[in-house]
Amino acid sequence: MEYVTGVRTKETLEIKELLAEEMQGRTVKINGAVHAIRDMGNIAFVIVRKRDGLIQCVYEEKNSKFDLKDLREAFTVEVTGTLSKADKAPNGIEIRIREIKVLSVPAEALPLPISKWKLKTSLDAKLNYRPISLRNLRERAKFKLQEGIVRGFRDFLYQEGFTEIHTPKIGAKSAEGGANLFKLDYFHRPAILQQSPQFYKQMMVGVYDRVFETAPVFRAEKHNTRRHLNEYTSLDFEMGYIDGFEDIMAMETGFLQYTMKLLETDYAKELQILGITLPRTDVIPAVRFDEIKRLASEKYGRAMKNPFDLEPEEELSISRYAKEEWDADFVFVTHYPSKKRPFYAMDDPADPRFTLSFDLLFRGMEITTGGQRIHDYQKLLEKMEARDMTTEGMEQYLSAFKYGMPPHGGLGIGMERLTMKLVGEDNVRETTLFPRDLSRLEP
Amino acid sequence: MEYVTGVRTKETLEIKELLAEEMQGRTVKINGAVHAIRDMGNIAFVIVRKRDGLIQCVYEEKNSKFDLKDLREAFTVEVTGTLSKADKAPNGIEIRIREIKVLSVPAEALPLPISKWKLKTSLDAKLNYRPISLRNLRERAKFKLQEGIVRGFRDFLYQEGFTEIHTPKIGAKSAEGGANLFKLDYFHRPAILQQSPQFYKQMMVGVYDRVFETAPVFRAEKHNTRRHLNEYTSLDFEMGYIDGFEDIMAMETGFLQYTMKLLETDYAKELQILGITLPRTDVIPAVRFDEIKRLASEKYGRAMKNPFDLEPEEELSISRYAKEEWDADFVFVTHYPSKKRPFYAMDDPADPRFTLSFDLLFRGMEITTGGQRIHDYQKLLEKMEARDMTTEGMEQYLSAFKYGMPPHGGLGIGMERLTMKLVGEDNVRETTLFPRDLSRLEP
User: Fold this and answer.
1) Total structural domains within chain B
2) In chain B, whose CA is at the least distance from the CA of A333?
3) CA-wise closest residue to A233 among A158, A160, A169
4) Together in a domain, B52 and B170
């Protein structure tokens, strides 16, 4: 028997540790993957990739006790050598190699030029070789920023008194949204994959007042576009005791403000690698659905096709309008038509053709749907009846309302879309680690 | 158009704000759900439930401008009144009610006595009425602690340089573990639900060196026991550049140490509500599989049935042994037999019948499986061949190794089981928000 006492201190150092002034001139040990080798004749640069960046290691025939020919890209290694400053090297430091210990050897040469600054490869090639293409610094930086977004979402909501929940993804078939559900066999019973944690997070408002979840959702939609995925990560929250759906927009604005600040401080390196300018979040305009449709249509001279729906190209022109008129990257579009919203959306008492709900558009694309929900049991039953819906399979959801629920509302944010628009990509697959779409089920 | 500027300050106060010394004697406004009403004749106590606890509100006929009969349990309300100290009340404060504004009214009386300190109801009743039973303070405290566990996992790993990833739950059929997979139709192609993010997190070690994920996993196992679920939340990490599987155990110990401290500081209220004594995590014994089996069998006089497997009752006696001999709540059992581990587990070069792997037992139950993985492409192929496995459908997983991977390992922790053992429950459904088992698909 031996005792395990906690995280072990390692001899190998990380970039942050190497940057300390007193380390210069010392013998240090690092590990990482050989990202690139640049042979200049007498000397060579062996660029080592670590999780927090690159380190330039200098091979010199007289000093380095190994043959450069024995080293190739994608080897993982442990390098021992002398640390010194080097203005032109990444992070301003380099290591003059004394010894290299090889930890692992690849079986084949890399299929993609991952050490290039920009990986100029087709999206398909990138996705087919996902575990390799992500080794490119710019590719992996996108998903590091994605981490920051989700982290910001959680940390901000903890701070605002929300409780994190974990709700099931397999469920019984219910009345809502049958067409877009993936179906599976659950021990000889028909089951579905949840397209949203909507019902669960609402039920949990009766328990914790404010809840959130960051988890996968599944949509069997047959869209094959740049903006649709059949599985994505949804950032969901739901909060009780609201005065109106404006409280939900205010909370989302708070999240965006918090997160942009977090990215600025903790993810500055990735922002710099990708050359990203963060969007404005100090104020976000909120404008009615019918009003902004009219404004954008007048300004850009396009006729509205359908006063009760929003086409993707209208989202673009609304965002353009918000940018030109209000210098806004984000814009809330409020009061969506009732018939385009689910049964649980609360209608506007002033005009029940519209709901107390909103979408958030970011640089031309919807990234959030949210709003106030019906919290009264009778009103919920009436709305379902008006829509010819059955309550079968929804007994437990409805029971939360039967036994009392506060006024509440919430939203869902598409993590991949928000990342996509933040990093300036035009296909959501670029910011999805392993996308699932009509044709892609692997890797 | 209006501008949204961020989170709004509300007139209604939270418990933390009410506890400030200067607030005593002032008129305050709060909101919440009526948890219980205790009518004493002239006065009555209206106990209001908020997300962070209970507030005692005092109804007095002469002072309170409403009729007590108009109020019932499970109403949600906004209370205005005078704040004062009250030694016997929750949090040591109470509000003498002046006005009550009713926000919502339940349609029926509560089906469970949720305001009782202990909800003495069958597990089935609790689960059938999940959105209601969780309104009980003790029931909801369990899941608040669960939040703390997951939060501790993430925060500790961020600090240790891990990157959070989001991997797909729908996948193509592959060679591994076919029997325990849920199958679904994915646009007329056969697909499965992932039983673990194992392959994805390994692939991502080649990108970020250290990664983690907290997400649902799906197992179509036909076990109907107190410890099995068909969907659960797995806390997974995987780390590269390890010197051995001991590094994984060290990291897990670090996580447990960090998290117990976090629970002590940020979740003290919940620990107190549930009367929990936190387990020891300063040192955790690690002992070989064959050795601890022998030790426990000798001490408790039970014959070993199978030297290559561990029965649930053996887990109990090993934990008992660890407690009695080493005063340990946790115990690592190392070097599991190779034939009981998946193909990617690294065999012990000293004795390939065993692997460089471990389980962590906590108070009699396995809550973690982890170990070092094979990182060499050829060795991985050989092991698969030795097991008569096809590489079909695993090309992309294997390609990560073909193009170089560092020595690495990782683990998966069952969130619900860890919570269960922490709070002292004996059925994992007690610490699963909405469990999925052989018979339960709702709510």
Assistant:
1) 2
2) B1
3) A169
4) no
* pLDDT in the model for residue A310: 86
Q: How far apart are CA A310 and CA A294, in angstroms?
A: 12
Nearest chain A CA: its distance from B10 CA (Å):
10
Whether residue B250 and residue A7 make contact (CB cut-off 8 A), yes or no, is yes
Distance from CA of A281 to the nearest CA of B (A): 8
Q: Measure A15 CA to nearest chain B CA, in Å.
A: 11
Closest-CA residue of B relative to A72 is B404
Contact between chains at B76 and A326 (C-beta distance less than 8 A): no
Residue A332 pLDDT greater than 80, yes or no: yes
SS3 A387: coil
A291 lies in a domain? Answer: yes
Q: B154 and B88 share a domain? A: no
Distance CA B432, CA B415 (A): 9
Residues of A with CB below 8 A from B375's CB?
A: 104
pLDDT score, position B22: 96
Number of helical (H) and strand (E) elements in chain A, helices listed first: 12, 17
Residue B123 located in a structural domain: no
* Shared-domain flag, residues A153 and A100: no
- Shared domain for A381 and A236, answered yes or no, is yes
| pLDDT one-digit tens code per residue, A250-305 | 999 999 999 999 999 999 999 999 999 999 999 999 999 999 999 999 999 887 77
Classify the complex by whether its ipTM is higher than 0.90, answering yes or no: yes
Q: Give CA–CA dist B36/B47, Å, rounded.
A: 5
State the smallest CA–CA distance between residue B278 and chain A in angstroms: 17
Task: Tell me the HSE value of B164 on the side-chain side, using a 13 A CA sphere.
Answer: 24
Please list every residue in chain B whose beta carbon sits closer than 8 Å to the beta carbon of residue A375: 104
Tell whether B182 and B322 lie within a shared domain.
yes
Query: pLDDT for A422-432, tens place per residue?
Result: 999 999 999 99
Q: What is the mean pLDDT of residues B254-262?
A: 98
Rounded Cα distance between B95 and B84, Å, is 6
Q: Please tell me whether residues B90 and B144 are part of one structural domain.
A: no
Residues A303 and A242 both lie in one domain: yes
Contacts of B50 (CB under 8 A, 6+ apart): A209, B14, B15, B30, B31, B32
Select from A76, A377, A441 the Cβ nearest to the Cβ of B404. A76
Segments forming the whole domain that contains residue B384: 137-431
Q: Tell me, yes or no, whether A73 lies in a domain.
A: yes
CATH number at residue A71: 2.40.50.140
Task: Return the CATH number at B334.
Answer: 3.30.930.10
Same-domain pairing of B95 and B186: no
Q: Which two tokens stand for residue A281?
A: 């979040």
Tell whether B439 is covered by a domain: no
- What's the pLDDT at A353? 95
Which one of B1, B143, B324 makes the best mutation probe of the A interface by having the most chain A beta carbons within 10 Å?
Answer: B1
pLDDT at A175 exceeding the cut of 60: no
pLDDT digits (tens, 9 = 90+) for A109-123: 999 999 999 999 999
Contacts of B193 in chain A (CB under 8 A): 170, 184, 193
